[in-house]
Amino acid sequence: MRTRRCIVMAVFLFFAAAFVCGKGIDAEAASRYTIYVNRRTNLINVVESGSGRLVRAMYCSTGRGYSTIGGTYNTVSKMRWHALYGGVYGQYCTRIHGSYLFHSVPYYRTVKNQMATKEYNKLGTQASAGCIRLAVVDAKWIYDNCGIGTRVVIGESRSLKKPQRDKLTISTSSRTGWDPTDPDPANPYYPSISLKKSASKKVKNIKYGSKMNKKKLRKMITVSSRTTSSAELLKNVTIKGRVRTKKPGKYKITFTVTDPRTLLSKSLKVTYTVKKAPQEPAEAPAVPTV
Questions:
Q1: Please, which residues bridge with residue 73 across strands?
Q2: What is this structure's pTM?
């Protein structure tokens, strides 16, 4: 009996310690950031609680007629999808207080291509019934990075910075559609990237000793998206890797294009081959003269 009690006590202490450690980790995550919401400008700034450094700026839609609660709160729960007022649904929901949430623009059903595009275009203005709407990329960021208990300050007294990315308006020709910032691989708003046909032959062979820098590599690709011009996208292409044209071998290069308006990225991996330099023919031996 004494042995059994010891075992029970040991198990209890183990789980109690795990609970305390877990709560410590949650408290640390919760205190890392502070989220500021301005109901007048419909902007959100996430800052480091200790330093005050701006981490992320977002457009949002708060409640019409200042119906979003004001004051200081701490987040209490998270839901991947959640039913909203009016028979619609939100993605990446974080509860602020009571029925007030951070969440995506509403969806008619819990399906990624059923977002209300007209409501998406209202981001940056008061448009909701009280919750705080966000583009998916931002709602997901809060969902993933701000622990339960994160401090949220809602009001108009603090001047907040706008996001660096442009405010995006999408076509409302169809009643529903995709959030253009949703990182789901099936999202049709992802940018495309490929090698130009004229450059595809160079994948097999790069001339030994030729000039091959990142500027020249960038000219070998073509990029496009539904929201941004190709010229603008090319400015947002990064290249990882290097081709050493004076050293024979295979070189792996990764091109990555990021759409500055949706923050969606697409990568292309290409293997370039540099062959040995052709050997110059040996000189013929001199013929002796008589």
A1: 152
A2: 0.82
